[in-house]
Amino acid sequence: MTVDIFTEFRSEDITDAMLDDAARLFSEQYGIWGVHPPNRKSGKPGTRIRMSASQLRSQCLPEGARCSYVSATVDGTLAGHAFACRWDYKNMQVCWVTQLVVHRDHRQRRLATRIIEKVRKTEDEIFGIISAHPAACMAMSKACADTSFPHFRHPSAPEQVAIMTASPIAHIREAELRGKLFVPADVHTGLHSGVDSNFFVDHEEPFAALAWLEWERLWPLGALPDGHEYLLVFTCRSSRLERAKFLLEPRLKMPSFT
Ligand SMILES: CC(C)(COP(=O)(O)OP(=O)(O)OC[C@H]1O[C@@H](n2cnc3c(N)ncnc32)[C@H](O)[C@@H]1OP(=O)(O)O)[C@@H](O)C(=O)NCCC(=O)NCCS
Known about the structure:
Elements: E1 3-5, E2 9-10, H1 16-29, H2 53-60, E3 66-74, E4 77-89, E5 92-102, H3 111-119, E6 124-131, H4 134-144, H5 157-165, H6 170-173, E7 177-178, E8 194-196, H7 204-215, E9 228-235, H8 239-248
Parallel strand pairs: 5-6
Antiparallel strand pairs: 1-3, 2-3, 3-4, 4-5, 6-9, 7-8, 8-9
Helix pairs in contact: 1-2, 3-4
The structure holds coenzyme A (COA).
Coenzyme A (COA) binds near residues 100, 110 and 112.
């Protein structure tokens, strides 16, 4: 098996043919619609969740935004990809993974983690993802954090709101934040940090992963109500950026021992 992780493509270099392949991977591999309440609009339960190339372009690559695409092939066939978007918040660069999919035949082999490792840049300091799949959050944390999952450095809830409000991606900017981190009275759902995205994906596969991660005490984001997705935001500076900022930022003078 030969795995190739391609280098990142910036928005302007992403061709229609690449988007057609990405849309096909998503439509065949992402997941299926689950049951939804009668008052909510959603896909037909049991059918595949699909996305066209033009939907991908408008949702993941909005005009003027700093977006990118990383794909991985196995033996020459597209096996996984990630779309990411960057923006600035208080002099820091945010890196947000807006879509992540790995072909079923290649899951649980760290392919998602390796794709996000390729997405990550030295200048990135704030990382985020919204996903119904705990493995997507785990891959994000393994690729970008310098500490194990439960011990992350998270921005405060109001700061997370401000980071997301600054996003050029509409569904991030307008996300309805849920869970006790954002709505202290929201304890009955068991969700710690998430969004009500009206996304009624079938939870069978994500819940199998969740059961394992909870059993291993690796899961800090709580339970996931139907129609919701997890929200993970954390900060981490690469050591190179840490040193560069140290030299630029005003700091206390060290005492001299003469
Ligand atoms: C979510 C998804 C991208 C993960 O891809 P993957 O290549 O299997 O992920 P990785 O192998 O890199 O796993 C990363 C971590 O997640 C956890 N994990 C992955 N699959 C898991 C599972 N089935 N059960 C428990 N934990 C799991 C592990 O901690 C793993 O790290 P480790 O192998 O070092 O222990 C893939 O399952 C997928 O495409 N799912 C459908 C689409 C989707 O939900 N995408 C996310 C929306 S943004």
